[in-house]
Amino acid sequence: MSNTYLSKLEDSLRLHTARLKKWQRLWVPLQQRAPKWVLGLWTLGVFFSLITEFYAHWMVTAPLILALIVAEIVIDERQMTLSLQADKLRDLLRTARHRYACP
Fold it and tell me: How much is the pTM?
């Protein structure tokens, strides 16, 4: 029983760690670039509005800005959840190893 339980915990920890690394590959570049993209879109929109006095482009620009912000929030929350789950599994695995190693 103890070997089966420990191997299941180790497999689960590997799975959560792999998922976390996958999200981090997506998250880190987005976290670095998204604020610049949002600022760039907003700046271009403002200058375009001031120069042309035409505001219809905000129907495209505003949803793009919102999508970038929402994507950042969703990915950050998902990464945090996976990180917390992996930490919980590490603690559980450490406890289980200690319990089964010391009778």
Answer: 0.68
| Residue 102: DSSP 8-state | -
List the domain boundaries for the chain.
2-101
Give the angle subtended at the CA of 51 by the CAs of 50 and 56, to the nearest 5°: 70
Does 5 have pLDDT greater than 80? Answer: no
Instruction: Choose among 64, 72, 75: nearest CA to 40.
Output: 64
pLDDT digits (tens, 9 = 90+) for 43-75: 988 998 889 888 888 898 899 899 989 988 888
- Give mean pLDDT, residues 7-17: 79
**Gyration radius (Cα) of the chain, Å:** 22
- Tell me if residue 2 falls in helix, strand or coil: helix
Instruction: Report the C-alpha gap between 25 and 44 in whole angstroms.
Output: 29
By the 8 A CB rule, do 78 and 86 touch? Answer: no
